[in-house]
Amino acid sequence: LRALDRFDEADRILTALLDGDPRSFGALIEQGHLRRQRADHAGAAKAFEAAAAIEPQHIGVSVELVRELIFLKELTKVDPILRSLSERNPTDPSTATGIAHILMERHWLSEAEALLLNAHQNAPTNASVLLALSRLARQRGNRIAGLRYLSIAAELDKTNLVIQLELAAELGAQGRTDEAMELIRAVIAIDDQNYSAWRQLGLHYRSTGEPQQAKGAFDTARKLDPSKIDALVDLAQANLATGDLHEADRLLVHALALEPNH
Q1: Which terminus of the chain faces fewer neighbouring Cβ atoms within 10 Å, N or C?
Q2: Angle, alpha carbons 48-99-122 (nearest 5°)
Q3: 3-state SS, residue 4
Q4: What is the DSSP code string of 134-155?
């Protein structure tokens, strides 16, 4: 029901389950996800916190609780939970990378590194762990190590378009434009409805001084997802670069209508 956006019906069922058994771990987890979907982050945190109290060794629910507390800016509650999670040092790659990304957001880089290196030792060919190690290295300013980890991840998981595009962006940032463009075009050949790929293609055309081609790529991205403002602003900037001031102004007015505080 939650997947079908039938939130009220799902809520009634969960409420009835929890009335019968207030310590139902599964029902509390589901209630947390339901409340998150309904943008009730305080309610989601309360449900995840209740579930964590029932099964304090369950790492996944603690991660969900931390995410909600960060959203609510209740950071005094976040740090002790994060400390406990990092000390438990989970080896499951998915769990380790999830915790590591939160640690990186809090700038606990040494703790994130220890967690990821342990996960990498246990699963050396896991592309998600390598991607997280790449992001950590780049956050520290080590672009060489970041590119090395990212290249290995992309080679291990050639079907992961997110990794391929992130590699393209990093190659472009390091001046390896031809390789970046080749990767982006390869992604578009696989998925020509990929908003991120078309926008990234536009950004690379812009960086190489090809505004007309950039306009075409940004316009394609905008049409693929009209709700996203980034490609709209990019397209406006491309029109400014080609001297089409009227069109640039029209696009920016539209962008501000979608997101007045941009």
Answers
A1: C
A2: 125
A3: coil
A4: HHHHHHTT-HHHHHHHHHHHHH
Distances, alpha carbon 66 to alpha carbons 58, 63, 86, 215, in Å: 13, 5, 13, 41
Instruction: Give the global pTM.
Output: 0.74
Alpha-carbon gap, residue 254 to 262, rounded angstroms: 12
Q: What is the amino acid identity at position 35?
A: R
Length of the chain: 262
Reply yes or no on whether the pLDDT at 223 is more than 90.
yes
What CA–CA distance (Å, rounded) separates 48 from 68?
9
Task: Find where tokens 């780049």 sit.
Answer: 138
- The pLDDT score that the predictor gives to residue 239 is 92
Q: Are 242 and 211 in contact (CB under 8 A)?
A: yes
Distance from C-alpha of 232 to C-alpha of 228, rounded to nearest angstrom: 7
Report d(CA 146, CA 139) in Å as an integer. 9
User: How buried is 40 (Cβ within 10 angstroms: 0-12 exposed, 13-18 middle, 19+ buried)?
Assistant: middle
CA distance 99 to 219: 37
